[in-house]
Amino acid sequence: GGGAAGGGQPAPGEMDDALSRLATSNHALQNLIRRLGTGLEDLLPNAHGRARMKEILAALKEHGNDARQMEALTELCEALSMGQEDVLIGFSVDAFLPVLVELLGMEHNPELMLLSSRALTHLLEVLPKASGKVAACGAVPVFCQRLLTIEFIDVAEQSLLAMSKLAVEHPEPLLRASGLAATLTFIDFFDTNTQRTAAATAANMCRNVPADGFPLVVDMVPNLTQLLSHGDLKICESACLSFARLVDSFRDSPQHLQAIAGHGMLPRLVALLRPGDREGRGFDVGTATYTSIVKTLAVCCRG
């Protein structure tokens, strides 16, 4: 009996092999489970994100139910501002844009206008490639309107913020919607930080102005000229950049150059080349601005 029992026991070397094979297959099995688990984790948020975005979109379309729309806008703003990938995976720019633009025009409810402009601003931050679609979807004239009739300062500020992001890549749609007037007409109503945003946005709209665009800028030249004497360095430098770009855009038209310089641009630019303490300014312009002023003056003198 003992021999039979002894014959049933594997040799020590075989035992090691068996354990090694078992450990290997166990390790492979654990890897497989881990991979399947990761796959499942990847799938679940996608499904949840798509479902959640459908719910938010449906709620935004519930016209007449302001409370429901505001709740959905708040959630959308949060998802966009936090860049929540699990939720944003179900976000369709084409589906949401028309709805957000419509809510932007809800003048009976300033909170709806504020939240929709905030959602569009966050959208431009999270998905910068969508800026072309935002520029073409009808939002720009509404943003401009909010700035030209400042009923609600926070809505106007949020509209300006959205415009400042659009102006970097898409200045022309803004310019054609009277964007320059929108950013500059009531610039004094805002705090310094917002004024800086407005001046920088205006400078972007002055870049590569199309040949037929002169009527869109000429009325704002006096406003831009005033900003050349602004007490804030950044605002002043944005004004200098605006003139450098305008002069560059119309360098082949002496009449246009004359109109651009016609409100006191030249003496103010020359004054900025002198040390600030001699001019009663608290700052000197930076090297890049100094160079652009010299170039602007050279083009005007030649023109």
Your description of this structure?
With 303 residues, this protein is mostly helical. The chain is 76% helix and 0% strand. α3 (66-82) packs parallel to α6. The longest helix is centred in the N-terminal third of the chain and has 49 residues, at 12-60. It is elongated and about 105 Å long. It starts with a helix and ends with a helix. Mean pLDDT is 88; it is low at 1-6 and 40-45.
Number of helices: 19
* Secondary-structure class: mainly alpha
Please estimate the helix content.
over 70%
Residues in β-strands, percent = under 5%
Shape annotation = elongated
Key descriptive features of the protein:
single chain; 76% helix; mainly alpha; 303 residues
Structure summary:
The chain has 303 residues and is an all-alpha fold.
SSE blueprint and pairings:
Elements: H1 2-8, H2 12-60, H3 66-82, H4 85-88, H5 93-104, H6 110-126, H7 131-136, H8 139-148, H9 153-169, H10 171-176, H11 179-184, H12 192-205, H13 214-218, H14 221-227, H15 233-249, H16 254-261, H17 265-273, H18 276-279, H19 287-302
